[in-house]
Design a protein that fits this description.
Blueprint (H helix, E strand, L loop, with lengths): L13 H8 L15 H18 L13 H17 L5
Helix pairs in contact: 1-2, 2-3
Length: 89
């Protein structure tokens, strides 16, 4: 089992962190395949949900993918980030 890093966000590469830290309501990115789009977007979503929960407010996230299989893979990344932040869902 891998030892968790002190800050889970250290798992993001610099370009992924810039994407995740962009709080724009709508973001459009022209990215190649296998660059971690779901991975960094999942971090952004989990962090946003956590911060809203902490502030006792609500937020909505919509996860869209071309197929059910890809949607499930995205949800698994959300689950991984939830574990990295030691949160329960």
């Amino acid at each position: 089992m891998n030892k968790p890093t002190a800050n889970p966000r250290n798992r993001l590469l610099p370009y992924q962190r810039r994407w995740a830290d962009d709080n724009s309501r709508w973001k459009f990115g022209l990215m190649s395949r296998q660059t971690g789009k779901d991975f960094c977007s999942a971090e952004e979503g989990v962090r946003d949900c956590y911060l809203h929960e902490k502030a006792r407010s609500k937020t909505d996230w919509l996860i869209v993918a071309p197929s059910e299989r890809q949607s499930v893979e995205s949800l698994i990344k959300w689950q991984d980030w939830t574990k990295a932040y030691n949160l329960a869902i």
